[in-house]
Amino acid sequence: xxxxxxxxxxxLDETADVISAAYAExxxxxGSEQALIDAFEEYRKEQRDxxxxxxxxxxxIAEEGGRIVGTVTFYPPGEEKKAEGWPPEWxxxxxxxxxxxxxxxxxxxxLTEECLRRARELGAPVMGLHTTRVMDIARAMYERxxxxxxxxxxxxITDEFVVVAYTLTL
Length: 170
Known about the structure:
This protein is α+β, with helices and mostly antiparallel strands and 170 residues long. It has five helices and eight strands, in the order βαααβββαβαβββ. Strand 4, helix 4 (107-121) and strand 5 form a beta-alpha-beta unit. It starts with a strand and ends with a strand.
């Protein structure tokens, strides 16, 4: 069973590596629109920049056997949610990432449950998150946990690629 805890400063590079490994398969298909390729490259850079998010969020990790196997960025209520458009009183999560070798073991659910626990403890009325249609397993997990679509906060990247919003009333 993994230990869920906040990342330590000396673990930030390893955490960035976990995010990169988890999201590597979700890049644009060959022949995709240039706008999508450019957007994904910017997103890839942002994924690795875990330090810039620490001013207004908490990097939560799952550690097993002395190794980080998953991570999520938790934005508590009252904090800036970047360009995500969530109300300040809501909590939000970003970049839930599980190493491919650890998928299916419940790590993603444990990390999400920890963020929900923290949000409830802090009095947030709603948890928001964004995902994409290609992340079928993550979307299915969120839906099993009770998250529902919140299309008014979707982020269109191109005509064919939209980052979709979900919320859960706490």
